[in-house]
Design goal:
Elements (H helix, E strand, L loop, with lengths): L5 E5 L2 E6 L10 H13 L8 E6 L3 E3 L4 H8 L4 H20 L4 E5 L2 E3 L1 H8 L2 E5 L3 E3 L14 H9 L1 H10 L2 E2 L1 H6 L5 E3 L1 H16 L3 H14 L4 H16 L2 H12 L9
Parallel strand pairs: 2-3, 3-5, 4-6, 5-7, 6-8, 7-10
Antiparallel strand pairs: 1-2, 8-9
Length: 263
Amino acid sequence: MKFDFDYDVHEGVATITLNRPDVLNALTFEIYAQLRDLMADLQYDDAVQSIVITGKGHAFCSGGDVYEIIGEMLERDMRGHLEFCRMTGALVQNMRLLEKPIITALNGTTAGAGAVIALASDFRLMSEKARIHFLFTKVGLTGADMGAAFLLPRIVGQGRAMEILTFGDKIYPQDALNMGLVNRVLSPEDLLPKAQEWASRLATGPTFAYAMTKRMINNEWNMDLVSAIEQEAQAQALLMMGQDHRIFYEAFKDKTEPKWNGR
């Protein structure tokens, strides 16, 4: 399949590079749809075990293209607007439901939909030169877009999320790190190598265990404690019967490193 972004798979790691640097990697209708469908397809692609998303040039992603999307959307009726908003939300939904870890390497401007794509990933690495900007209210729209009002409070807390989504101010790297919005802040030259290092480690590790961990984190967001503990007991019992757990045991006895097979 041909994409309007760069796509490469190497040793189990898929790297997506948004490649419209002249417009800060702004998204088009086509790119939204391609990313949405790719995130669904990757669930069944055994050649890919982890994903890195980054941007070309000085931006990660500045959101929807002002001319190619916003200008055209103003000419659509209510149904057309709803179809578009559901499509963009489906991208985030597919990212969260994908049982493979996603790392976003935020190399520069991360705004609007770009900020929500970062939210929907499992790990966020941020360049010292990057800025995160949930700017929806700055353009007269609700800060609740593409699942932002669902995801952000779970990452930074309700009060902080209200501040971020209401005021729409830029978030600088150290502040993002302090509030837990990103996992690491790195120099620009170290950003992508660290993302690839993490992705490689995830791709060669006990991938079924990682998948179950992501599934359980998603599932338990809306559970009570008793239900969560029971669900974890059932999930762990399944994993204890898996091949990777036995591989660990045999390697431990032999004093060798386990060679995981993801089963």
